[in-house]
Design brief:
The protein is 32% helix and 13% strand.
Length: 152
């Protein structure tokens, strides 16, 4: 983790970078392009993978699914929370932050499932039928800029 990172993005894949109707196991180029375009406006933002894909694939393999401009920004994956309690993904994010002493670092989760996080969490919800698109990118930029300054 770089000391100058602005916001940490906790990134889901299915429903975000792969729409529900798309083939399984592949990220969609249209969603990836919109994500890459948004990240150009957030140059110091780092990415942590929260997707279930991390259960079967090491981070270095998951990095290869992304364009070169994004790969180096993927700094890890959240630990798995095997409990059946609500908001497991949120607990995984908090465990990741705690394990690295980053509890005070601003973060945003990008996910398609509102049940993964309690209300009031900094989550950009994506419509899984649409996936990450230009509008989501604009929302992410605005949300991230607000988190950097503490106003979001």
């Amino acid at each position: 983790m770089r000391d100058n990172a602005e916001v940490i993005l906790f990134l889901d894949f299915d429903g975000v970078l792969r729409r529900l109707q798309a083939p399984e196991g592949e990220l969609e180029s249209c969603c990836l392009q919109a994500f890459e375009d948004a990240l150009r406006s957030l140059p110091a933002t780092e990415i942590v993978i929260t997707s279930n894909w991390r259960e079967c694939n090491p981070v270095d393999e998951l990095q290869r699914l992304f364009p070169e401009s994004i790969r180096a920004r993927i700094v890890g994956a959240t630990p798995l929370d095997d409990s059946v309690e609500d908001f497991a993904r949120h607990r995984e994010v908090l465990a990741y932050l705690r394990s690295r002493g980053l509890e005070d670092r601003p973060w945003i989760a990008i996910d398609d499932n509102p049940l993964n996080y309690p209300s009031g969490c900094p989550v950009l919800l994506i419509d899984p039928e649409v996936g990450f698109n230009r509008d989501a990118g604009l929302q992410l930029i605005e949300f991230a800029k607000g988190r950097e300054t503490g106003s979001g």
